[in-house]
Amino acid sequence: MRANASRLKVKVPWYSSPWQIAARAVSAALTVAVVGLVVAVAVIPQVAGGASLTVLTSSMEPALSPGDVVAVRGIEPSAVCSDVGIGEVVTYFPEPGDPALITHRVVGKSFGAFDDGTPCRLVTQGDAVGVTDDPVSPAQVRGVLLYKVPWLGYARAWTADHISLAIAVTVLALGTYLVVATFRRPRTRVFEVPTSALGATAVAASGLQDAALQAREAVLRERELAIQQRETALANAELPTPTAPTFWDDPGA
C-alpha cells in the first residue's frame, strides 16, 4: 500500500488549530489592553493639560479607592469659579508650597472678594469624611477628575520601587517573543496520496495549462490578422487613382 503512495506535505494555516486561535486572541487582547492603559494613563491626561495620579487614602471611597489611578484635566485658575460645578471632583494643593495633593468632591461654592484677588472659594469634602475641608482658592486647584483606572496604582508603585527588575522582565519577554517568532517553522502535515491520484491530478493540470496556451495563441492570431488587414487598407489608400488616357487629333493625318 505504501509502495504505491506518495507523501504530500501541506502547510497548515494558523487558524486551523484551536490552540493557535486562542493564543493569537490572547496576544491581541493583551496588546490592546496595554496600549489602552498607556493611552488612558499617559496620553489623554497630557493632551488635556493634566496628569495621572495614584489614590493613597480612602477618604473618597467608594468612588475612589486606594490603588486607583485618576486622570485629571488641567484648568486655569481664572476658569475655576465658572467651570467647576458642585458635585465635580477636583485635585488641589492643600497649602501653598505643599507637594501633596488632595482629590475631593466640591460640595459648595462661595463668591466674594478675597485677599488673593480670586472671586470664589470651593468647599470640598471627601465622600467618606463627615466634615468639609478648608476653603480652596482657585489658585490651589490642579485639575478636574476625568476618570479612574482601578488598582493600576499598585502596579505603578511596584514598578517604581523595582524599576530595574521591571525593565529586565520586559526586555526578556520581548526578546523571547522575537526569537520564537523568528525561528519557529511553519507547521506542516504529511498526507499519503495514491500515485494514481497524483498522476490524474498532474494530467488535469497539464490539460488546463494546454487549454490556456491555446486560448492565448488564438487571441494573438486574431490580433495579427487585424494588423495585417489594417496594413492592407492603408496600402490601398496610398495607391494613385488611374486616369483615362487622352488622345489629340493630328492635323497632318
From TrEMBL:
Any one Gene Ontology biological process term? Answer: signal peptide processing
Look up the domain of life of the source: Bacteria
Q: Which InterPro entries match?
A: LexA/Signal_pep-like_sf (IPR036286), Peptidase_S26 (IPR019533), Peptidase_S26B (IPR001733)
* UniProt key word Membrane: yes
| Ranges in coiled-coil conformation | none
Q: What class of enzyme is it?
A: hydrolase
Q: Name one GO cellular component term.
A: membrane
Q: Which UniProt keywords apply?
A: Membrane, Transmembrane, Transmembrane helix
What is the species of this protein? Answer: Xylanimonas ulmi
Q: Which residues cross the membrane?
A: 21-44, 163-183
Q: Per the UniProt record, which EC number(s) apply here?
A: 3.4.21.89
Q: Name one GO molecular function term.
A: serine-type endopeptidase activity
Give the range the annotation lists for the signal sequence: none
Where does it reside?
Membrane
Designated name of the protein: Signal peptidase I
